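[agent] plan:
  1. take the single chain provided in the ticket
  2. run structure prediction with default settings
  3. attach structure tokens to the ticket
  4. add a short note for the reviewer (M.T.)
[agent] executing step 1
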Amino acid sequence: MASIDDVKIIELPKFLDARGNLSFAEQNNHIPFEIKRTYWIYDVPGGEDRGGHAFRENQEVVIALSGAVDVIVDDGVSQKTFRLDRSYYGLYIPKGLWRTMECFSTNSFALEFGSVAYSADDYIRDYDEFLKLKKDGKL
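[agent] step 2 finished; step 3 output follows
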């Protein structure tokens, strides 16, 4: 079962250049899984939150490519907030943890890599159900 201690910031390679900087991420190297899905979040209206769910199987890496966002991760016992505001840092979130994204800055753009293809059945969208699954050892 995953806990807050399994969530980690991944520092991605960065090449600084007067012409502009470059960073990258490789699956099974910087990203600790094979990437099956890539998606992004943008144009989030002021005061809106995203996420508010857990995954049964999907692992994620979240990168704030532009702007900033707070990612709150919850293992059913404790919570931790990670501020993503550099495009060369990714946040690894294992399966079985609740996550919420909030405090999006103006023009923020968050890229997410997932370890499984999209499946509505992989989502746990009810926090009480999440807590029960954690308590019962099913997450």
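[agent] step 4 note for reviewer: Helices lie at 127-135.
[agent] ticket updated
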